[in-house]
Amino acid sequence: MQYFDRHDGGENAILVHLDIREMSDPDDLEEFRLLVHSAGASELAIITGSRNKPHAKYFVGTGKAEEIAQAVSEHDADIVIFNHNLTPSQERNLESLIKCRVLDRTGLILDIFAQRARTYEGKLQVELAQLNHLATRLVRGWTHLERQKGGIGLRGPGETQLETDRRLLQIRVGQLKTKLEKVKQTRKQGRAKRQKSDIPTISLVGYTNAGKSTLFNRLADDNIYAADQLFATLDPTLRKVRWAGVGNVVLADTVGFVRHLPHELVESFHATLEETLQADLLLHVIDGASDDRHEQIEAVNAVLAEIQADAPILLVYNKIDKSGEPPAIYYKEAGVPSRVYVSARDGLGMDELSLAVSELLVGGVAQFHLTLPYHAGQLSNVLHELGVIVAREFDETGAECLTVSLAKSKLQELLGKHGLKPFDVLPPHEAAMLLPELEEFEKPDVAVVDDDDLDEFCR
Ligand SMILES: Nc1nc2c(ncn2[C@@H]2O[C@H](COP(=O)(O)OP(=O)(O)OP(=O)(O)O)[C@@H](O)[C@H]2O)c(=O)[nH]1
Ligand SMILES: [Mg+2]
To answer: How far apart are CA 111 and CA 329, in angstroms?
Structure first.
């Protein structure tokens, strides 16, 4: 038997993409090229073709496999990347025929994720996903695996390299899971704190490259990494921002969705998506200038349905500077916006977005003039925490007078929670607006979260 170590691979790539007629929803060629580019590889040539179904041994047919081998030697390529998932044996057969490293679609996406993960949790998740992928195809050279190898202190007598690899892998997987569980607990605590504070959360979700981080930056006036590469963001990033008409909100940027995301990644990025489950509102950011936008919207909706996200959704059609549409809000019924058109890059449509979000979150805002009795200091703190106070002064009796801008229903709820009657603290015509449903809110137990806690969590 001939032994060889696995080819090292590199950056100069031959791409392979087939139309498989049996697959109803083929992977897109343009997206594939963007993925390859995102991974930092350069494209030497693309080999395309079509088949009714994948070839058992090579995925592509024998003739096509030879064509690939030919291209590899012609272009002196380091790696062949397939826009499909290969079985371990197909990968192995191809490598031994082509004499070059072969990477499949899952491997490619994992590689991008590995390069992009920035936080501790993101890195752990990527490593776990990689090990799970590896477990099915232990790859330290295909043929040496079953060879007996002597190694001092490394393994028991008679144990093969393959067994050792498997055992080490399992130990590492176990360690990673424990660490991730700890991170998850910490995250949960942070979230509980945030929920108590009454501050609404808005999550930006959407297909990769739609412009979520660009929008996030604009909204948070911040500099989170945005780049024309797929999966520029891998970790949910949180910021506390002041939203006109709503007050303080927590904004969350999330990882981009992609069609046919490898199963290992769907699993291990659940924590990232969990953030979206907790949101009061989802902004589904769409690359409105992309020809694939319909498929991308569907792909995102499918995942949202899968993880049972039930927050209201506003569709944000981004990149109108490219698509040429004017900034606008579309309503599905009075007061319920369903779509807005913006350009995150150029700051177009930001007023429309702002209005739509406040209408969805607070159902229309109004200004109220509160005169608070001395024992209502806690309510004053809560209003401050919510960022809804427009003006503040004291009258001649020393009572605190606040002008606040917030939703009727929210003020109603807060007054009820603090045991205050609208007619005692509001001018009669404003109090009259609140009366009907006040009875429901009579729990005086409100938790005040101090700003430092939140800031720490939001970093
Ligand atoms: N023309 C135009 N380009 C935009 C706009 N918004 C974002 N982009 C560009 O689109 C690319 C992707 O933007 P990101 O904000 O990184 O996209 P993302 O949705 O966060 O992507 P992932 O984190 O990979 O999921 C970048 O090159 C941006 O400059 C826009 O309004 N108009
Ligand atoms: Mg991003």
So the answer is: 39
Task: Consult the annotation and say whether 209 binds a ligand.
Answer: yes
User: What range defines the domain where residue 369 resides?
Assistant: 365-433
**Considering the entire predicted model, what is its pTM?**
0.67
pLDDT, tens digit, for every residue of 253-291? Answer: 887 877 666 666 766 566 566 666 678 899 999 999 999
Span 334-357, average pLDDT: 89
Q: Which of 203, 214, 223, 276 to mutate to test the pocket of ligand 1 (most atoms within 8 A of CB)?
A: 214
Is the CB of residue 447 less than 8 Å from the CB of residue 400? no
Q: Is any ligand 1 atom within 6 A of the Cβ of residue 209?
A: yes
> Residue 39 belongs to a domain with what CATH number?
3.40.50.11060
Residues 358, 268 share a domain: yes
Residue nearest to atom 24 of ligand 1 (CA): 231
Whole-angstrom CA distances from 87 to 23, 230, 384 are 16, 25, 58
Q: Final residue of a domain: which of 341, 362, 383?
A: 362
- Residue where a domain terminates, one of 84, 103, 122: 103
| Residue 426's CATH number | 3.30.70
For residues 190 and 457, is the Cβ–Cβ distance under 8 A? Answer: yes
Q: Is the CB of 343 under 6 A from ligand 1?
A: yes
**Domain containing residue 355: CATH number:** 3.40.50.300
Residue holding tokens 């309503």?
331
- 212 labelled binding-site residue: yes
Question: For the segment 80-114, what is each residue's pLDDT rounded down to a tens digit?
Answer: 999 988 988 899 899 999 988 899 988 888 888 88
Distance 343 CA to ligand 1 centre (A): 10
- What's the chain's average pLDDT? 79
With H, G, I as helix, E, B as strand and everything else as coil, classify residue 271: helix
